[in-house]
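Before a computer can learn anything about folding, someone has to put a protein's shape into writing. The outcome of that step, for a single protein, is printed below:
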Amino acid sequence: MSVLSVLFIGDIVGTPGFNAVRMFLPSLLQKHDIACVIANGENAMDGKSISEQQFKELQELGVRVVTSGNHIWEKWHIQKMLATEANLLRPANYPRENPGRGFTIVDLGPAGKLGVLNLQGRTYMSPIDCPFKTADWAVDRLREQVRMIVVDMHAEATAEKIALGWHLDGRVSAVLGTHTHVQTADAKILPKGTAYITDVGMTGPYDSVLGMRKDIALKRFIKQTPHKFEMADSDVHLSAVLLKLDYTTGMAVSIEPITLPEFRRNADDAG
């Protein structure tokens, strides 16, 4: 069996998330002999979109492809970046009139090529084009050139992510959920060989409500009136999954969730 490792980093949230990538990615690259790093960067710029400088820094750190989701559009400069950066993706099922691309191919040398596909769900989100039909079209195109394909399914609803996993089982290497910022406990290999997890989790500050200051989030819930979100900055963790792929078949050998540092789970632990 010919196996390579792919690391997928969950939603990078603001400067705290970037600091976690800076701190932990170099050692992960060395420890696991990783062939390709993919990261979701839609929340990198204080929760909304990603700057050109941030994108370049991720590339310098070893990230080959940056995926995204609905928040990528919230800064106007992103239009030009999406039009010019081949490895900065937006969900493929946005209307075609929008700039950018929804999938790309990365050359991994002797191991071949890796396709990366970005999709977005529609349940509780914008009613864009169908992610399932878009996946069928995009996967068919990618499989003309690659055996290995990793899919970022950026979606709110657990059921929609699970359904896409079953829909693509045996046709792609992995279906990895993003957007909800909490790493789920269902990482597994589906029957036909596709690795799956409902959400990879957040790379950012966990002394928060999904990356935002918890006092402000509480005011919004309790008072039911608008309050401007602000980025939290403490208890920072990196969330990711490590995939091992058989590059002769394109199917997954294993999927391992990663959280660095690990969360405090014992009251006796220092914290």
User: Anything to note?
Assistant: The chain is about 25% helix and 25% strand. Helices lie at 14-32, 52-61, 78-84, 131-142, 158-168, 214-223. Residues 3-204+237-260 form a domain with the Purple Acid Phosphatase; chain A, domain 2 fold (CATH 3.60.21.10).
